[in-house]
Design goal:
The complex is a heterotrimer of chains A (170), B (106) and C (507). Chain A is mainly alpha-helical. In chain A, helix 1 runs antiparallel to helix 2 and helix 2 packs antiparallel against helix 3. Chain B has a single domain, classed as Orthogonal Bundle (Helix Hairpins). In chain B, strands 1-2 form a two-stranded antiparallel ribbon. The longest helix of chain B is centred in the C-terminal third of the chain and has 30 residues. The chains are: A mainly alpha (170), B mainly alpha (106), C mainly alpha (507). Chains A and B meet through helix 1, helix 2, helix 3, helix 4 and helix 5 of A and helix 1, helix 2 and helix 3 of B.
């Protein structure tokens, strides 16, 4: 086992444990949010191990930095730090969801075992793979349409959030 | 080199945890966070697959990573709108309990 | 030095027009609401709303024209030859034109309704335009990334629009429910896309088609997840539970818009995915679609019977129509796809019309929602009652209306590809649907009016939309291949539908 692999299992395990912690913690919403941060940061580390450097940076800055802080902000603003809801009554739908989710997981895991894709380890990455230069150049040449459409998407989100959340009505 | 099938398995496990969170939790904030967790699992799958397909016909390919960047942008937009909707609702009613909004009524 | 990409900006014209329109509206609202300092005179809020709605209609008309020109020109053009993301071809330009037309009609329908609710803000029209630009990206996308981005750009403004009447709790709830279900569905869809990318090594439709191995279990899981993601969007049974609640809670004008355009865009995208990307996997999809289609038709129609609320009834009816449309997907033939396109056009007019009547009856923001409140409408509002009866007949599929023509084409396609059982289920359930659709005309013409306070006058925008929809329903039902118009000569809608999907079959 190389150092890389050990780090992967370490961060992967951390991500799973903190994700479970977020979902299973029914007492304290703030703790759930903080578990989510741990998941995000561990995933960022996994991205580094997978040599996707720019994505790793964005993962930590946008997810860990911006999105989770927004969650925390709303939890504090609405004063939701304790989560006192009684357990759900709609057992049928919930169990259908749980069964479907686990079935999909099993399906994917079985598929993984048989997939020839993983029979050989991937070749070494080309020079500059996943760096800001390659991603940047491709974003503004081959994928320029997506950048433009993403800007429209963010415009829509800004307008929408303003309309829904601004204090003054009319 | 990382065991790539374990990377994809990790992403599948995280995705399933997210689905279970959406299905079993009733706090709307936690449901929203579970959806974010699902999106993160998707990102991990994209990055992992991109590591396998880092070259297509000898040319460097980063389709998966571009996809991840777009997913991050979309996730940010979704969270902004989602929390806006929550705030608007919270002003009209002091609850963020799913069943009070009859979310899964048949 | 990086070589500049060889971009083909003119291909993007429909989206560019819509995007510019949305920004014009946002800027225009700021300027007009400061009119006393900028122009030196005060303007009222409803005047601003009307001007901005006019701007939206103008830009949608330009888009309609641009995509119509592209359709007439034929041919296939891509935005970026190095990496085609967006492809303007007969199919996408035709669907774009349909989307622009229905968005235009929805804007005209909204003006008075929103003023009555006192929410006639420019942001409403800007959001409609932004979501329309997402739909136009999605239907013309030839890459999974663009499909996903288009889907989100379509959905996020609609989440907001559903909650646009933010003082009303049920509008909030509608937005929240749509948002949670919608983002859950897009996460599922995304995981499917990730798996498809994993097995094929590319995100473009071309790479997907080339990289597929129909026996690979991971490809099948990915495909299944993508189908489930779309199933939520077009409310196929069993992924439909959100539909009635969301349709009921959202402002009626928004419901009219989203019930029509989202379906058109999502079905068109499914057609393109099936025809261009999933090639070798089609056989395994056929059975899934068969079951989903039969379930959707049966559940939609049965549940519609027991509804007491017009908007819920129309929601279940739209689920049932999604089921009929899926018959076209099951056949997978050029006949089936072109029947779907024709049906989508017919559905656009009849559903917009039916919701248009509900909008036109709303009084000071109180929707006329109970089915019982339609009693005696023929006495008090004869014109509205007549068009409502026409739309109900068309939704039920009575001969002479667009709905009948659409169903006829779809069922014919089913017969020709040997799906007799789907035909039988479809026809039987259409007979069932006559019961709940005709309840409204019966109430309107055979009962005494209740003392329900409907709005007593109709606004010009609503009137125009209803007249256009009614004429279109009649014209498409009576002469689908030569719709007479004063301005443009005879229009051959059937031939257009054929030509638009013909490109997938080398036509």
């Amino acid at each position: 086992m190389t150092a890389e692999t050990i780090l992967f299992y370490l961060f992967g395990g951390l991500a799973v444990i903190s994700a479970l912690g977020m979902v299973l913690n029914t007492r304290n919403t703030v703790a759930s949010v903080l578990s989510l941060v741990v998941t995000m940061v561990s995933l960022g580390a996994v991205y580094l191990l997978l040599e996707a450097y720019l994505v790793a940076a964005f993962q930590i800055m946008v997810y860990g930095g911006a999105i989770v802080v927004l969650f925390l902000f709303v939890v504090m603003l609405l004063n939701l730090s304790t989560d006192e809801f009684p357990p759900s009554k709609q057992r049928l739908i919930k169990s259908a969801f749980v069964i479907a989710g686990v079935a999909i997981l099993a399906q994917i895991l079985i598929a993984l075992g048989h997939d020839p894709l993983f029979a050989t380890p991937p070749e070494a990455v080309p020079e500059g793979y996943g760096g800001y230069r390659q991603v940047g150049i491709l974003l503004y040449t081959d994928y320029v349409l997506l950048v433009e459409m993403a800007s429209l998407l963010l415009l829509a989100a800004i307008v929408g959030a303003l309309i829904l959340a601004k204090r003054k009505i009319d | 080199m990382l065991p790539m099938d374990h990377v994809i398995a990790l992403s599948a496990i995280l995705f399933t945890i997210g689905v279970l969170g959406v299905a079993t939790r009733r706090n709307l904030i936690v449901i929203l966070m579970s959806i974010e967790l699902m999106l993160n699992a998707v990102n991990l799958a994209f990055v992992g697959f991109n590591r396998i397909w880092s070259q297509v016909d000898g040319v460097a390919a980063i389709d998966g990573q571009i996809f991840v960047l777009m997913v991050i942008a979309v996730a940010a937009a979704e969270v902004a709108v989602g929390l806006g909707i929550l705030l608007a609702m919270f002003r009209n009613r002091d609850s963020v309990n799913v069943e009070e909004v009859n979310l899964l009524k048949w | 030095m990086i070589p500049a990409p060889d971009l083909n900006l003119s291909v993007l014209l429909p989206i560019i027009l819509v995007a510019i329109g949305s920004m014009t509206i946002l800027m225009g609202e700021v300027l007009l609401s400061r009119a006393d300092t900028v122009l030196g005179r005060e303007v009222t809020e409803s005047f601003i709303g009307t001007v901005l709605a006019g701007t939206a209609i103008f830009f949608f008309a330009l888009t309609l024209w641009a995509s119509g020109v592209a359709f007439a020109g034929g041919g296939v053009q891509v935005f970026n030859p190095d990496n085609p993301m967006y492809q303007l071809d007969p199919f996408s330009s035709f669907v774009t034109a349909v989307l622009a037309l229905s968005a235009l009609l929805s804007c005209a329908l909204s003006i008075t309704y929103l003023s009555e609710l006192r929410i006639n803000h420019g942001e409403y029209y800007a959001l409609i335009m932004l979501s329309a630009s997402g739909m136009m990206l999605m239907v013309a996308a030839v890459d999974l990334i663009a499909v996903f981005l288009g889907l989100e750009l379509m959905s996020i403004p609609i989440y907001v629009l559903a909650g646009f009447d933010r003082r009303k709790l049920r509008s909030n709830e509608s937005a929240l429910k749509y948002f949670l279900i919608g983002s859950f569905a897009s996460a599922i869809l995304l995981y499917g896309m990730a798996l498809l990318y994993g097995v094929s090594g590319g995100t473009s439709f071309e790479a997907l088609r080339a990289g597929f191995d129909a026996d690979n279990p991971m490809a099948l899981v990915g495909l299944g997840l993508v189908v489930v993601g779309f199933a939520f969007k077009i409310s196929m049974v069993p992924f439909h539970q959100w539909t009635p609640d969301v349709y009921e809670g959202a402002p009626s004008a928004v419901t009219a818009y989203m019930s029509v355009t989202v379906k058109v865009a999502a079905f068109a995208t499914l057609i393109r995915l099936l025809a261009m990307a999933f090639g070798p996997l089609e056989a395994s999809l056929e059975t899934i679609f068969w079951v989903l289609s039969a379930l959707t038709i049966v559940v939609g129609n049965i549940m519609a019977i027991i509804q007491e609320n017009v908007k819920r009834m129309l929601a279940y009816s739209s689920i049932a129509h999604a089921g009929y449309l899926m018959i076209g997907l099951v056949t997978g033939t050029i006949e089936g796809y072109s029947a779907m396109i024709f049906y989508l056009i017919a559905y656009t007019f009849m559903n917009l019309g039916a919701f248009g009547v509900v909008v036109a009856l709303a009084n000071r923001g109180n929707d006329c929602e109970r089915i019982a409140s339609f009693a005696g409408l023929a006495r008090t509002r004869p014109g509205l009652a007549a068009v409502m009866a026409l739309f109900m007949l068309s939704l039920a599929g009575i001969p002479g209306t667009a709905g009948f023509m659409g169903k006829f084409k779809i069922f014919m396609a089913a017969v020709n590809s040997g799906d007799i059982w789907l035909l039988i289920i479809g026809v039987l359930m259409s007979v069932v649907s006559v019961y709940y659709y005709l309840r409204i005309p019966v109430l309107m013409y055979m009962r005494e009016p209740e003392d329900e306070s409907h709005r007593t006058e109709i606004a010009s925008g609503e009137g125009a939309v209803l007249v256009v929809c009614a004429l279109a329903v009649l014209a498409l039902g009576l002469f689908p291949n030569r719709v007479p118009t004063l301005l443009f000569g005879d229009l051959d809608v059937l031939d257009w539908a054929n030509r638009s999907v013909g490109m997938f079959f080398g036509g």
